[in-house]
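Q: What does the assembled structure look like for these inputs?
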Amino acid sequence: MFVTSAFAASTEAGAQDAHAAGTEVPAHAGGHEGAFPPFNPQYFGSQILWLAIAFGIFYLIISRAVAPRIGAILEDRQDRIARDLDEASRMKAESDAAVAAFEKELADARVKAGGIAAEAAAAVKAEAEKERAAVEASVSEKLAAAEKHIASIKSAALAEVGSIAEETVTEIVRQVVGVELTSAEAAAAVKSAAGN
Amino acid sequence: MSAADKVDPIHQFQLTELFHIEFGGVNLSFTNSSLFMVVTAVVAAAFLYFATSSRALVPGRGQSVAEMSYDFVANMLRDGAGSHGMKFFPLVFSLFMFVLVANLLGMVPYFFTITSHIIVTFALALLVIGVVVVYGFYKHGLHFLNVFVPSGIPIVILPLVVAIEVISFLSRPISLSVRLFANMLAGHITLKVFAGFVVSLGSLGAIGVAGAVLPLLMAVALTGLEFLVAFLQAYVFAVLTCMYLNDALHPGH
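A:
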């Protein structure tokens, strides 16, 4: 029903216009009846006008509000991801450095421990060596003293042997021969006998 | 309206005036088509605006769709017209969303399909070509005419090639608009015809109802196909817009 009333209105308008604008509008209105609607030029002006209005406003909303906003959202996300990746790689580098430092410290500690052990071993060895040397020295000193003592005892004993022999010679000679020998003569005799 | 109107596959394209407006002898009435242009713009803009209003770092469902369509068009434009083409992003994005939403709204029963009118698609195509021509001459001056002179062509056949290029350029707005218009028009007529078969056969009694199963299945399948066409034609329109803008940006082939 609405179509027909609108159609009536447009034909009425066409009839009014017919006085002023000639046959143009009635011609359109006449074509309205049988024309295939998409090709009917009657509403071309209206279609273009309202398309321009609707699409124009839509374009303004898109270009002023929507596109910058979605662009900003996507950019923020991109930045955030990039930042997080940077942060992650920084943290990884940090942890790698920490691991490297730890390993280096461990190696240092190992080297140090080896050094301490070697030092301690060397010190103990040196101490033992020193003690051994001291003991050896004292032993050899005592040995030397003992040897010296033995030698002195021996020489004393040997000297004693000489004088005993002289006294014995003197006594024997006196008792057997009755001649008193001087000690020098007895010594010479003993010496010559001992030299044989 | 009688039953005959319901089966008439052309009736859906009829324009009806909602408010009669006339200016200087030209009928500028607010029609059902105008209403759906406004609805299309409002639906598309409201969806994009409110879906992204939270600016969430991790997008929700609506924001995901909005971002996907943004990325989709941005990649299309970057591939088609290079990074310089991004200055036309709002235009291509608006065209894509407007045509897509108009096509999809047209799939709703009793809704008017604005892209089924040649004058609407032709106006959109003229907008694209107008932007191409104006920007091309503004940016490159007369060098923009190089768009008709492909490089590396022997001088002998150059006039012929230039003539072909000129014709191809002039036919662009026609092919761009007719492709979208014809797809939407034909799809809706086919749908209506098959749906009309269902109604006509169904009124013939038991045998008719049994016979109506086939066109019903056809109508269901065509509905799916039409949703695909609705998206595809919006995509094709946007891709071709990108390619034409590429000519305006880089007129030398």
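Strands of chain B lie at 17-19, 22-23, 26-27, 30-31.
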